[in-house]
Amino acid sequence: MSKKRLLVLGVLTAVTLIVSSAGAQGSRLNGEGLTVGYTTPGLDNEYWAQTKAYAEAEADRLGVNLVFLAAETGDVSDHLDIINDFIAQGVDAVVIAPVDSKGIIPGIEALNAAGIPVVGADILPEGGHLIAKVQVDARVGGRLVGEYILSQKGPDGKLFLEDSDVYVDIGEIRHSGAYTLLQENGWEVVRQPLSPYGRGPAQDMAETVFTAHPDLDAYYTLNDDTALGVVQAAQAMGMTDVVICGYDALPEAVEAIRNGQMGCTIYQDANALVSWAIQMAVLYNDAPWAGTVEYYIPPTLVTPDNVDSYK
After folding, report:
1. Residue 164 belongs to what domain range?
2. Is 307 contained in some domain?
3. Which CATH number covers residue 227?
4. Beta-sheet pairing, 265-267 with 300-302
């Protein structure tokens, strides 16, 4: 086993022991006096609004002073400005989910130069040094979606993938897990970027896609908010046989699955993801380590078969 792998296991074991003892002894992770900057994409997406609430709750539990700022315009320049603000404030650590994995690299390098540790949470930067990476295992999630589509439509189908117009590492990983499996089973894959994100733009694009590809079998989006826009387009155009799949298990998407309007989504435990990210920042302050700790949370597939038991 490599030294890096041993280090990862050691740090994760330490965090697990600290957290598991919290109930009996009170939390041994103490963030009192620490200021952590946390930045995500815009809060108009319900998933990111949820992460903000989870981050605030975890910071309160650990006594951390949390400075939460979102890139509301969806442009990487927002995130770079936010990072400059964090550096000017002299925060003790930064947790980030960037809108653009490559465009954010200068900001991560600026944080590194300022000596501020950085944790990547959910979406990860493609460069600069991170002390920790915390993600739901997107490759597994994508493959679960691919397996579900294959179970519903069989081989030799046609899939549309809704892409991002900027590089988002986790988006490509989610997609590749699905389309690799489907291509191995004779599927044709059509891709197109959606910009800007949102339910309205997703509906507009889906109507164009359904017109151009009336033989489409499945439609897979990067998140549930845009999947719900696809549902609206499918209903308006009578595309009732297309399997629509999203990601994030937002309550409205789960209800759409229950009603037969969507095929599946992926539940990712955003609360656990956010909590671990903040805990990593606190733990590093107490006992810094070399290298990068990587932690992956298993995803859960939500379909009509288990939607009634899903919580």
Report:
1. 138-267
2. no
3. 3.40.50.2300
4. antiparallel
